[in-house]
Amino acid sequence: MGKVRTLLVCRDCGQQLARWAGRCPGCGGWGTIEERAATEMAAGGVEVTVLVHDGDEDQRVSTGFAGVDRVLGGGLVPGSVALLAGEPGIGKSTLLLHVVANLSAAGLSCLLASGEESRGQVASRARRLGVDGASVSFVPGRELPSVVAAAHTSRPFLLAVDSVQTLRDPDSGQVPGGPAQVRSCADALVGLAKALGIAVVLTGHVTKDGDVAGPRTLEHAVDVVLTFDGDPRSGLRMLTGGKNRFGAEGEVAWLEMTARGLHEIDPSDVLVSNQLEPGAAVALPRAGRRALAVEVQALVAPTQGPPRRHVTGLDPRRFHLVAAVLERASIPVGRADLFGASAGGIRVDDPACDLALAAALASAATERPPPEASAFVGEVGLTGVVRGVAAMPARLSVARAAGIRTVFAAPGTEGIDGVRIVPVHHAKEALTWAGASRRRVERAEGVRSTDLNEQSNGRPEWAKRRSDLGF
Ligand code: TYD
Ligand code: MG
């Protein structure tokens, strides 16, 4: 015997849907889709349906953050499950609350289940963010059955669970937060999302080495994995899309954490200072599918002892390689402690940044800043030859937006309106402004600073915008 089948129908226009949606694709009405019993039954109770229905076109709902929508592949998809992963304190709960508030403001019902914080704590955070918490439903999020029951009763557009590790499934005899518990709670929520057509966002803590604490298997259960990243000491945050069943991987959104929560920013505005000091150069790496203008910095501190090398945010192997190439090109960086960093400590591992690292090191060694409003793009080989890189038009347009007017790049690179290319075959040619001054290194008693922050703190102009952000 077959069971009674239900249909999803818009109560306003009668449009039938294959799956639940917040908005009717037929008449555009919000919250008008409801379940109705259908008399038709498939033999043996197994429902067979055509693959593509009329109402199947991709439905996306904006989170209120253009960048977050882009990372999601165009917005939240009803019936999908996203995992928002990040280290404790990075801002997952804050982002979740913003999204819930934005959707509620757009007239979509949201249910927030928090096992991390009490209702009072979430309410006070909402007040601090200046968001209207009155339209958001709340349920304590420690017991899976009560969260599932609340979702069945209130049928929200979005169920936000903070966090999957504090949720407990009493049927799974394990400790909360343990792999089996997390997996069984996630499975139950995936089932709920698919059955009711609810969008679900789960937060999950990751450990230092990037694993979602407990089961990595969670990534297979969900549709989308979002990683929230950044140096917790700075306000800059990066949301990247990993696995995504509904969109392209590798998109990035940039946000800034302020006293009043998160807002979207153009990273180049905060990662490039107006006036470059010696030891800094602008690089144009790719971040996911986009490009970005970011300052890379170097400190060359002459030493009598064994030279040390330390980098933050940069790829150490590329940094060492570039330093060795410079030494061969008579730029004196060999007998010195070398430190390298990217502004904001953001990860910069695109080989296209090699030439900017060379410029920063040469600038630090000779105490001469690179030419005004310039950037450097190119992969540097072992011979010092500069190789062209992909996605130049995207890199040049972010450079122009960041106020760059000259870009040193491999021969054959075409400029764009407002950005001139200086073609360079060899790293040496890109560094002629630095000259081969040995002044700095010959000063045997040069002051040794081992702290990059200390250096930038002493330079208010250089770090003005960044110190506002706390880095
Ligand atoms: P939170 O969202 O609680 O992080 P997570 O859920 O990932 O653990 O954010 C924690 C940090 O963010 C906390 O140290 C305080 C800071 N914060 C702000 O700077 N401004 C704000 O408006 C809010 C709500 C938090
Ligand atoms: Mg939290």
Which architecture of the largest domain per CATH? 3-Layer(aba) Sandwich
Stated plainly, the CATH topology of the largest domain is called Rossmann fold
Query: What portion of residues is helical?
Result: 25-40%
Gyration radius over CA: 27 Å
Which cofactor or ligand species appear? thymidine-5'-diphosphate, magnesium ion
Number of structurally distinct domains? 4
Please state the average pLDDT score.
83
Q: Structural class of the secondary elements?
A: alpha/beta
CATH C-level class of the largest domain is Alpha Beta
Q: Could you list the spans in which at least 5 consecutive residues all have pLDDT below 50?
A: 39-43, 436-471
**Tell me, what's the shape?**
elongated
- Total strand segments: 23
Would you identify the CATH H-level superfamily of the largest domain?
P-loop containing nucleotide triphosphate hydrolases
**Beta-strand percent range:** 15-25%
Distance between the ends: 66 Å
Largest sheet report: 9 strands, mixed
Strand order of the largest sheet: 6-5-7-8-4-9-10-11-12
Quickly describe the structure.
The chain has 471 residues and is an alpha/beta fold.
Structure write-up:
The protein has 471 residues and is an alpha/beta fold. α4 runs parallel beside α5 and α8 crosses α9. The C terminus is likely disordered. β20 and β21 form a beta hairpin. Helix content is 28%, strand content 23%. It folds into 4 domains: 57 residues, no CATH class; 200 residues, P-loop containing nucleotide triphosphate hydrolases (Rossmann fold); 163 residues, Ribosomal Protein S5, domain 2 (2-Layer Sandwich); 31 residues, no CATH class. The longest helix has 18 residues. The site of magnesium ion has 4 residues, from α2.
